[in-house]
Amino acid sequence: MAKKKRRETEGEINNEAQNTQSLANGDSLSHEKQPKKKKKSREKEKERQNDTVSSEISTVSIAVSGSIIDNAQSLELATRLAGQIARAATIFRIDEVVVIDNKTTSEDDSTDMVENSSDEDDTGAAFLIRILSYLETPQYLRKGLFPKHNSLRFVGLLPPLDAPHHLRKHEWASYREGITLKNQDQGSVGTLVDVGLSKNVVIDQVIEPGRRVTVAMGTNRNLDAGSPRQIVPSSRPREEGMYWGYKVRYASNISSVFKNCPYKEGYDYRIGTSEHGLVIKSSELTLPSFRHLLIAFGGLAGLEECVEEDNSLKGKNVREAFDLYLNTCPHQGSRTIRTEEAIFISLQYFQEPINRVSRKYEQ
Fold first, then answer.
1. Rounded to an integer, what distance in angstroms lies between the CA atom of residue 166 and that of residue 185?
2. What are the boundaries of the region Disordered (predicted)?
3. 3-state SS of 152-186?
4. CATH 2.30.30 applies to domain 179-233
5. Tens-place pLDDT, residues 147-205
6. Do 11-157+248-362 and 179-233 come out as alike in CATH topology?
7. Highest CATH level, class, for 11-157+248-362
8. Contact 272, 294 (CB under 8 A)
């Protein structure tokens, strides 16, 4: 694949994460009056424009079916399953996790399904999105971003992700994730932000309370200093070589995974995994240069079912939906490999091929 410079728009990813957190907060746009909806739309568009990045960072995304949750025998086991996926995504530095809802053929890929689901009718996709988003969020922000929900009852049993942006109170870093609290008093222009330190910091923008933001902390560790901190795009730490967690996206079906890709030019290389795929040794697998790689995992009946149930892909063979269709665990001793197991196995399998491409691209 020819190498060429591209400009990528990451703002939609940041909006997606903000939308997920806003939904977790109980913010619903569907019941607002029309003028307020237009105002919110303008604000989000402004945020999207401010969140544009020009660097050529490559990304790796995974797509997984929410139906795997339906196979769990209890809420606790479902929570542990989701926790395994979150751990795998973090360990292997995944940038985006797309959750596929195979039960619908809808074109609507909004996250309203997460917000509107009650304790009783949480779908597998809604449950997985909520747990993944919760675990990716730094601990000091969770109380402010996630209201109590039955789906979160057993999250305390899960091992922490311990990602680089999950900072302790005594740790100093160039960037910290924060939640906006309120505007400064006495007519000052600015907003207080809780970044998990002993004191809140001030930013020079007025942002509504309850929004997750990425704050550039600078070199001045004096929290009492008068100079405000700066808000930066959530992709900025990633541009500087730091892993900064994964984004979570909802897709109504497999075709929506491709069609609603948040990157401007889409996924330029798509890999499907299945026991029916090609068998190639990891050391012999050569991937083309890519900007945005997608690795997809099927649900209880595999990717074949995902493609068959998608009206947009009627008559299309599953191999035609991907650039490469692989069996990453041949000669298996068990009749089935669970999706959470396949994710760990496959992401380890792809490590060296991806690293070879990255080193080649950097030369």
1. 30
2. 1-56
3. HCCHHHCCCCCCCCCCCCCCCCCEEEEEEEEECCC
4. no
5. 999 999 999 999 999 999 999 998 999 999 999 997 765 556 789 999 999 889 988 88
6. no
7. alpha beta
8. no
